[in-house]
Amino acid sequence: MSSRITACPAEESLYMLADGALDERESQRVREHVTKCSNCRRVFCEAESLQGISRTLGAAKLVDRDHERIKRCEERTLPKLRASLSDFGDESDAAI
Amino acid sequence: MQSTGTMTTDWQRIKPLQDPTRDEGAWRAFIARYSPLVYRLAKKKGLDRDEAETIFQEFCMQMLRKLPKFEYDRSKGRFRDWVLTVSLNLIRHYWRTKAAEDKRRRRIFEQMQSAGEFEPTGAAEWWHAAENARRLQLALEALRGEISERDFDIFERLTMREEPVAAVADSHGLSANAVYGVKFRVLRRVREIAADILEQE
């Protein structure tokens, strides 16, 4: 590993590194730079943290089954709520 | 990008439900917000699909009864923690009722009780992770109107559908670098909005 700091890579390369999307040679080149450049290290660390958000969103995405369930919950729950809400119209006391 | 000053917070979304004569739009939003969480919690606690949906229905009825009298005081705890406690109590009550009718269920219920399965502290970690994921989803929904359709499409295909970068870039006539730029710009903004939501909950 050379001790000379190479030119900073494009910010997008740091994002790609965090996403594991660079080929081996490029990945090694950017990684070497990151170890020596505090500014790029900061961007890379942030990119890794953002990748965590990306993974969470990807894993938590609502699929059709979830949307169907939400719809089913609406269909089952709203009529009951409507009935109770009309009771509220007759009584000022909120307790049911 | 716009500020999130107009973002409705969790509590602001809930508050209209304190007035029980309100139209049902707020309830629809409430159902969309909480049914995935409460349903998954009930499933996690051993209930089947129908039972989990029944729990959610009961949960909404409890909210209808309790919310008009609920006083939001953040120093006494967060609304979302209160929601967890209400959900767990409903699940425990359901299990207890079933346990009285069924010997096998009684044994399971007793084991769950002694393992602290119905205690908020035991479920808090899972609940908060699920809440965090739901908060990120809400942040993304809020962001949809704030960014271009192209950027949203890029983000959604990369993150939610896990399509190859090259295919997404190609379909928009962009380089892979540019597509990554969009993805991380959107992620940064999602993080900001989610932090705002959390701050105001």
| Order of H and E elements of chain B | HHHHHHHHH
Tell me what portion of residues of chain B adopts beta-strand conformation: under 5%
Oligomer: heterodimer
Helix count, DSSP H or I runs of 4 or more residues of chain A: 4
The amount of helix of chain A comes to: over 70%
Describe the structure.
- The complex is a heterodimer of chains A (96) and B (201).
- Chain A has helices spanning 11-18, 24-36, 38-59, 64-90.
- Chain A contains 4 helices and no strands.
- Chain A starts with 10 loop residues before the first helix and ends in a 6-residue tail after the last helix.
- The longest helix of chain B has 25 residues, at 120-144.
- Chain B is globular and about 65 Å long.
- The two termini of chain B are 23 Å apart.
Topology of helices and strands:
The complex is a heterodimer of chains A (96) and B (201).
Chain A: H1 11-18, H2 24-36, H3 38-59, H4 64-90
Chain B: H1 10-14, H2 25-44, H3 49-66, H4 79-101, H5 103-114, H6 120-144, H7 149-160, H8 165-171, H9 176-200
Keywords:
heterodimer, A: 96 residues, mainly alpha, 4 helices, 0% strand, B: 201 residues, 9 helices, globular, disordered N terminus
How would you sum up this structure in a few lines?
With 96 residues, chain A is an all-alpha fold.
